[in-house]
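Reopening this one. Same input as before:
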Amino acid sequence: MPSPVLIIPWMALGMLSGSVLGFMTRSLLRAKPFSRLSWTMSATLTGLLFAVLAWRLGCGLALLAYSYVAAVLVPLSIVDWAEQRLPSMVVLPSYLVLGVAFGADAVLEYDYVNLLRSAASMVILALAYLSLALATGGLGAGDVKLAGLLGLTLGWWSWSALFTGTFLSWLFAATARVVLRSTGRVERDDPMPLGPYLALGTMVTVVLGLSTSS
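Same output, byte for byte:
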């Protein structure tokens, strides 16, 4: 088990990263202000995610890669929840960051299986969401781009991680929809942001160790 010598400083780094990313979140929000309370909560959440990832993964390139994913998923979820959009300026560069991290790990470990599975998962999930978007019109381009990124993220671990993360994402989204409908918060045809639930399903899969079987 990783020592507190890693976990505590990594949590502090996460809180600092979350605070800095708060400036990005504020600039990305067009209609709704980013309050000081929301800023503090997002920084705290990022710090907690960093701590759990450090405990779960230990020191290594995987920790760097997944901490980056956690850091960007928080502001993306906030923006999508508030304005139902996932800015490409955050999503698209993340493909490059993860690709470099996973590629470096593959070279250092002389093992390209994870990298190839990750790339295949990215394509599979992006095409699946694109097909769903074209067939139903219920998904936006941002959802499709985020799906590819999360396919890259989950596929690095295993095929079961890809399926588990996707299943949990839709389970969380469906549960939230039922709760919001039953409490009168949304109507039947009201759109609902999917990004936060995609992020939640992915992070739960990683931090709870539901992604270890290949």
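So the earlier flakiness isn't reproducible anymore. For the record, Residues 4-207 form one domain.
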